[in-house]
Amino acid sequence: MTMIISPNFGVKLLVPTASSKLSHNSPLVNYALNGLERCWLPEHRRWSHIFHLDGRPSPNESVPNSDVFYTLNVLLGMSRVAGIPSGLDLPEIFSRNASLLTRLPVRKYAFGMALWSAAELGLETPEPVKRELTAILADESRWKNFRAQDIGMLLTGVVAQARAGENEWWRYAGPLFRFLKERFHSESGLFFDAPSGFRRRFSSFATQTYLSIACYQYGEFAGDASALVMADTCVRNLIALQGPQGEWPWFFDAMSGRVLDFYEVYSVHQYGMAPALLEWAERFGQKGSRDALVKGFNWVLGQNQLGRAMLVPELSLTLRSQVRKGELTTKAPRALRAVKNAWLGNGQRLIDGTDVEVRLECRSYELGWILWSFGRRTDLPGLTNNCAFGGA
Questions:
Q1: pLDDT at position 13, please?
Q2: Which candidate, 283, 332, 351, 391, has a CA 20 to 30 Å from the CA of 26?
Q3: CA 319 – CA 307 distance, rounded (Å)
């Protein structure tokens, strides 16, 4: 290992020498693994909520309930990595952090991520977590409070467990899918954010991703063609709404199927979450899915409004997003704009790039999605072996 001082961020870096590179991984995967070293909180045995890229002396910010969820997300990604860095005891990290789910104020989707990552890693879910989650799933009256990410992650986790042979969870899969189909699926082909209420029609790209992945997972394992059709329809609509330089819009009107606001454009959608969804779409022959994946990824490499790569090579980290100027610290204008556009029936386009700036932070789960989406891919060398990540 070689230590250098970053002139841009004022922190000490441990840069792996060529001989210590994990040779079984692609340069992209090693880039993400090296970045995760910066986000590691050794005293807590988890990855951090935010790594700030604004030059502060202590860049890692810890928010325990978020750290834990992000760590489970990173572990999910690690399940697809051929060469794991030495010193990472994945079973111990999983057990320590999953056990905290019953003691921290986490959203229900965190339990779904615990099931999913445990299944992919071949690990046992802690008994207190099983008990609490069983109580949640057994009482369908509590499902009315689920948001899209909750039901998407829970259904995906349940299916992943059943696929891994843990059949005790399968009895919840059918009811969860029926609830999703009845309360979250819009005639537009997109998904609602909630089962009821004013907020439900205002859905995010994450809403579409998590619910489509859940439908693909359930449809394939259960042999339910209706679930596959729902996922394929959503993906087809998303591809049609993708921006001219591969931008995945952030906010939609699920009722009409329109884009309400492109911003923020998040890097994790471009290089992680969209590729995770489009991997499924490719598998089921969705036309245009591979091209949309590549176009979206190239946005991160600099083919975007600002003409800059959303990478911090000296830290092996990424820049979180491109955001409207003046909206780094407030969501109010975005919310008001979305309501206005929905009310007036307006669609949204990209604004002039001079009114866009960059959010200077990276979150560990973002790098986890790189590991999941590209840990096993060898068919996209233009991305995984790109020179931006130290490839040829």
A1: 40
A2: 283
A3: 14
Average pLDDT over residues 381-386: 98
Distance CA 392, CA 386 (A): 6
Of the pLDDT bands very low, low, confident and very high (cuts 50, 70, 90), residue 392 is confident
Token pair 């590691």 is found at: 40
Say what the pLDDT of residue 12 is: 39
- pTM beyond 0.90: yes
- pLDDT value for 348: 79
Per-residue pLDDT tens over the stretch 78-130: 999 999 999 999 999 999 999 999 999 999 999 999 999 999 999 999 999 99
The sign one gets for the Cα dihedral 35, 36, 41, 47 is positive
Q: End-to-end distance of the chain based on CA atoms, in angstroms?
A: 22
Round the average pLDDT of the chain to a whole number and report it. 94
pLDDT at 19 over 60: no
Is omega for the bond preceding 124 within 30 degrees of 0, making it cis? no
| Residue 108 near residue 154 (C-beta atoms within 8 A) | yes
Dist. CA 136–CA 77, nearest whole Å: 26
Kindly report, residue by residue over 66-80, the tens digit of the pLDDT: 999 999 999 999 999
Report the residue count for the chain.
392
SS (H, E, C) the chain: CEEEECCCCCCEEEECCHHHCCCCCCHHHHHHHHHHHHHEECCCCEECCEEECCCCCCCEECCHHHHHHHHHHHHHHHCCCCCCCCCCCHHHHHHHHHHHHHCCCCCCHHHHHHHHHHHHHCCCCCHHHHHHHHHHHHCHHHHHHCCHHHHHHHHHHHHHHHHCCCHHHHHHHHHHHHHHHHHCECCCCCECCCCCCHHHHEEEHHHHHHHHHHHHHHHHHHCCHHHHHHHHHHHHHHHHHCCCCCCCCCEEECCCCEEEECCCEEHHHHHHHHHHHHHHHHHCCCCCHHHHHHHHHHHHCCCCCCCCCCEECCCCEECCEEEECCCCCCCHHHHHHHHHHHHHCCCCCCCCHHHEEEECEECHHHHHHHHHHHCCCCCCHHHHCCHHHCCC
Per-residue model confidence (pLDDT) at position 14: 40
Cβ(382)–Cβ(375) below 8 Å: no
